[in-house]
């Protein structure tokens, strides 16, 4: 009899615990925005959808399927730097030089910046003041995995001359 009561109590506790977790995210009247986690930043889902729609167009659901990847690296002066990859594309290596920093891309797609409904290249965002030189260094760290490249003769600690 004691074992039966313990089992019933244990089962009841499990149902209660499951009920708490199952209802936790569906509270009525919850106005908190849904968040999407990336490796370097957490962004609200509405902003992620804006970026996807601006970049991929009307077919944003198709292009964000499993064969496509989207990585948002950070927010800079209200704009978002991101990199989109296509797993089905041929490996086409390309690069972009912005103020002496070289950004390499393995699928042919460059890193882009989303600002006020517009998509632009890093150089354009840098020239317009959206990105600073320190922002470019931050993006290089995030995109290149900590390997930095520069083309000028200055000696920057941690950078590799090319």
Brief descriptors of the model:
162 residues; alpha+beta; 4-stranded antiparallel beta sheet; two-stranded antiparallel sheet; 10 strands; globular
User: Averaged pLDDT, please?
Assistant: 74
Unreliable stretches covering 5 or more consecutive residues:
14-28
Q: Count the strands?
A: 10
Q: What class would the helix/strand composition place it in?
A: alpha+beta
Distance between the termini: 78 Å
Mind describing the biggest β-sheet? 4 strands, antiparallel
Strand content: 25-35%
Please estimate the helix content: 25-40%
Note the total helix count. Answer: 5
**How large, in whole angstroms, is the Cα Rg?**
23 Å
**H and E order:** HEEHHEEEEEEHHEE
Please give a quick description of this structure:
With 162 residues, the protein is α+β, with helices and mostly antiparallel strands.
List the helices and strands and how they pair.
Layout: H1 2-23, E1 35-37, E2 42-44, H2 45-56, H3 60-63, E3 68-76, E4 79-86, E5 94-98, E6 101-105, E7 112-115, E8 118-121, H4 122-127, H5 133-143, E9 148-150, E10 159-161
Parallel strand pairs: 9-10
Antiparallel strand pairs: 1-2, 3-4, 4-7, 5-6, 7-8
Structure description:
34% of the residues lie in helices and 29% in strands. Strands 3-4-7-8 form a four-stranded antiparallel beta sheet, with helices on both faces. By secondary structure, it is an alpha+beta fold. The protein contains five helices and ten strands. The chain has helices spanning 2-23, 45-56, 60-63, 122-127, 133-143, and strands at residues 35-37, 42-44, 68-76, 79-86, 94-98, 101-105, 112-115, 118-121, 148-150, 159-161. It is globular, with a radius of gyration of 23 Å. 13% of the residues are buried.
């Amino acid at each position: 009899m004691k074992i039966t009561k313990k089992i019933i109590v244990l089962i009841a506790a499990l149902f209660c615990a499951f009920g708490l977790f199952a209802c936790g995210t569906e509270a009525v009247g919850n106005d908190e925005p849904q968040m999407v986690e990336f490796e370097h930043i957490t962004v609200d889902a509405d902003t992620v959808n804006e970026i996807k729609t601006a970049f991929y167009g009307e077919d944003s659901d198709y292009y964000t399927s499993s064969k496509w990847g989207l990585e948002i690296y950070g927010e800079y002066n209200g704009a978002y730097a991101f990199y989109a990859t296509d797993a089905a594309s041929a490996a086409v290596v390309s690069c972009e030089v912005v103020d002496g920093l070289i950004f390499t891309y393995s699928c042919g797609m460059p890193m882009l910046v989303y600002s006020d409904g517009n998509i632009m290249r890093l150089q354009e965002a840098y020239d317009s003041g959206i990105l600073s030189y320190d922002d470019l260094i931050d993006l290089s760290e995030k995109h290149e995995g900590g390997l930095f490249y520069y083309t000028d003769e200055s000696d920057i600690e941690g950078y590799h001359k090319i």
